[in-house]
Amino acid sequence: FGQADGWVVEGDNVLAVQVHNDTISDSTLHCDAGLRISGGSVLLGMAETWRYHVGVSEPSGGVVDPEFLGAPIPPVNWGQVEFDDSGWLVGPGGIGFGDGDDATDVEASVRYSAMSVYMRQAFVASIDAAASTNLLQLEVDYDDGFVAYLNGYEVARRGLGVSGDFVPHDAAA
Prior knowledge:
- With about 170 residues, the protein is mainly β.
- The protein is about 0% helix and about 40% strand.
- The protein has one helix at about 110; strands at about 1-5, 10-20, 30-35, 40-45, 50-55, 90, 95, 105, 115-125, 135-145, 145-150, 155-160.
- Strands 1, 3, 4, 7, 8 and 10 form a 6-stranded mixed beta sheet that branches.
- The two termini are about 20 Å apart.
């Protein structure tokens, strides 16, 4: 999707993906993602261990407005490196339910009350990986729509409206 310079920084980084179903009664949902740089070096491989939040609520402390409703000290967005995901569930990708190919199966009790799953994976990049000459390649295996963020910035979207628009946890793909 572009050169690494400006997207990947030396040190701590995070790839964050929200995946959405097309209806609340859809019996399948799936997501896994990976990130590579030119030459085939893997920054984040498919089937890595992810932290994830089942979308029965917004992941950033219930805040639904991307401008944080004018809060004097806005909370850290769930897609940023600084976000504390220590209370999230942990499991290997792909994460989802209903299609028989998920390494992490979302608990049955929440399947039909959630339209989305939010996933985060932290990774450390070297100065070489963050070099401006390296091209980034994002791979996402998903069902039905997703938005991907790198260090809090949207880098890809499929099936969920217009780039840059906020997508609430209960939106349909």
